[in-house]
Amino acid sequence: MAHAFALDERLAADTMEVTELELCTVRLMNDRTYPWLILVPRRADCVELIDLDPGDRAVLMEEIALVSRILRQETDAEKLNVAALGNAVPQLHIHVIARFADDPAWPGPVWGKTQPLPWDGLESADFTARLDKALQES
């Protein structure tokens, strides 16, 4: 029996809602050290990209490209890191991280480099509103 989609509890705890796209919910990681978005396809029981049907995989790739363009536009990122690891949280989710030569983890990966620096409420509300508007207008 198929399950209904539910956001993993750890993703829910570590992120804030930005917007909903056709396939994915887009969330902001609660770490302002790195502007970091998470895309989660709203499909139950998906762990790997291959668990999505071909149509959903195509939509996911377009949504990754859209979110990447908007994140680069809004942050002037020097580099974007895009990854689907899922070792700690098995639910399929894609990281899109804006990177800068002066960030604390450069040029290495961001995981485990620094303690997360939570967003200030007003700052995160402004950033998520800008991202939402840009994503909806694209």
From TrEMBL:
<dbReference type="InterPro" id="IPR036265">
    <property type="entry name" value="HIT-like_sf"/>
</dbReference>
<dbReference type="InterPro" id="IPR011146">
    <property type="entry name" value="HIT-like"/>
</dbReference>
<feature type="domain" description="HIT">
    <location>
        <begin position="4"/>
        <end position="106"/>
    </location>
</feature>
<dbReference type="InterPro" id="IPR026026">
    <property type="entry name" value="HIT_Hint"/>
</dbReference>
<dbReference type="GO" id="GO:0016787">
    <property type="term" value="F:hydrolase activity"/>
</dbReference>
<protein>
    <submittedName>
        <fullName>Diadenosine tetraphosphate (Ap4A) HIT family hydrolase</fullName>
    </submittedName>
</protein>
<keyword id="KW-0378">Hydrolase</keyword>
<dbReference type="Pfam" id="PF01230">
    <property type="entry name" value="HIT"/>
</dbReference>
